[in-house]
Amino acid sequence: MQTSTRPLAASDPIHRELVSRARSLVPRLRERALEVERTRRIHPDTLKELREAELWSALQPREFGGCELDLSVLLDLGYELGRGCTSTAWVYENNSMHSLLAGLFPRRAQEDLWGDGQTHRTLATGWPYKHASAVPVDGGFRLEGHWEFASGCHSSEGTIVRAPVVSASPDGKPDFRLFMLFEWLGEYEIVDVWRTGGLQGTGSDDLVVQDLFVPEHRVLAMRDINRSRDTVELQGAGVHASVWYRVPLNIWFPQTVPPALVGAAQGGLEHTLERNRTRRTQFGDRLAETQAMQLRLAEASVRIDSARLLQANALARIGELYERWEAPSLEERAAWRRDCAHAAPQAGEAATVLFQRGGAHGVNEDDLLQRVWRDIGVGAAHIATDWDAAGVICGQALQGLPVTNPTF
Questions:
Q1: Phi and psi angles of residue 371, each rounded to the nearest 5 degrees, phi first
Q2: For the segment 294-317, what is each residue's pLDDT rounded down to a tens digit?
């Protein structure tokens, strides 16, 4: 008999407390958002507050000082922080979910990361690369490469990068591995290249590694965290036994991307509602009483709510199945990917209709609406929210055709 280790999600008092703490940070995040964009870094005071509020511990394994909560907590925390600052929320959800990813590594790697009382440490990632290779050597690998889009790398203590192993694979496919690297050991260099139209504060710069030895215990094969689609077993090194260590990475990882974007759209809606209290047209009419504004508010709100509900339903169903050690059907997995990818364009459409009704002052650099609109546009370019890719997956599955996307 399997003993239930699944947290109670939103009914869990720790979950609710962390959400309350995140919500309390929103006013200060809004005050700092413009500075975050201009400096291209998360504000130091915000990093301090996130740590003091223990938000980084949400998905961290209990064995290493964390709360090990249900993944739905990231849906809520990313959303709340996104209401205040999209870049901050993006870095938070990105680096926080890597605590779950780190929990798939061998125990010794987790001890290297969080041992000796260093439970505050977080990890960025570098998966897309310009070039990367790992050569097997005695006791580990020699790694080198140049990775892109390492969100939060300036505020994290380490990173996880992906590289193909230089060896003959039996099936001819690349043998991808994940490598856990540490900033305090000087194992990688950050290259300042992040100049974008949105999410500027994420500091999603490049990482460079030159001929670095990485010990075997800090390496994880991608095939070992995407095991067994038709049955359920522990993923990775099997160090922890809770529900989300049973779920293949390709199922849960995409769900971690949209919350910050949906929260940003909600922040834009709240900003519009507050501003409408005093705004009038050039003819003296209250803007809040115009049908055009009322219709746009209705459209934005339903898009935001539908995005959140679709993701919440997906995460609840994933947790429910894997709690019972039941594998999902192909159609269910395809629907989860579809719903995740749908959330980002819904947030984008909500931000667009609000921005279009924001008036001439809405284009100013210090106006929240235009920043939210740009941030969501950039965030929606993430591969996890690629609607075309997710739509093809879903369309193939619905018709009983082979799903051809390798990330599925």
A1: -70, -45
A2: 999 999 999 999 999 999 999 999
pLDDT of residue 6: 40
| List of long-range contacts for 18-24, beta carbons under 8 Å, 24+ apart | 18/53, 18/54, 18/55, 18/58, 18/67, 18/69, 18/73, 18/77, 19/73, 19/76, 19/77, 19/80, 21/53, 21/54, 21/55, 22/53, 22/55, 22/76, 22/77, 22/80, 22/81, 23/80
Q: Where are the domains of the chain?
A: 9-120, 123-225, 249-398
Question: Tens of pLDDT along 83-136?
Answer: 999 999 999 999 999 999 999 999 999 999 999 999 999 999 989 999 999 999
Q: Are strands 129-137 and 123-126 parallel, antiparallel or unpaired?
A: unpaired
Q: Kindly report, residue by residue over 356-394, the tens digit of the pLDDT.
A: 887 777 777 878 999 999 999 999 999 999 999 999 999
Residue showing tokens 């000796």:
116
3-state secondary structure labels for all residues of the chain: CCCCCCCCHHHCHHHHHHHHHHHHHHHHHHHHHHHHHHHCCCCHHHHHHHHHCCHHHCCCCHHHCCCCCCCHHHHHHHHHHHHHCHHHHHHHHHHHHHHHHHCCCCHHHHHHHHCCCCCCCCEEEECCEEEEEEEEECCEEEEEEEEEEECCCCCCCEEEEEEEECCCCCCCCCCEEEEEEEHHHCCCEEECCCCCCCCHHHCCEEEEEEEEEEEHHHEEEHHHHCCCCCCCCCCCCCCCCCHHHCCCHHHHHHHHCCHHHHHHHHHHHHHHHHHCCCCECCCCCEHHHCHHHHHHHHHHHHHHHHHHHHHHHHHHHHHHHHHCCCCCCHHHHHHHHHHHHHHHHHHHHHHHHHHHCCCHHHHCCCCHHHHHHHHHHHHCCCHHHCHHHHHHHHHHHHCCCCCCCCCC
- Closest by alpha carbon to 86, among 13, 5, 32, 157? 32
In CATH, what class is 9-120?
mainly alpha
For the domain bounded by 123-225, which CATH number is listed?
2.40.110.10
Rounded to whole angstroms, how far apart are CA atoms 37 and 88? Answer: 10
- Level-2 CATH architecture, domain 249-398: Up-down Bundle (1.20)
Check pLDDT > 60 for residue 8. Answer: no
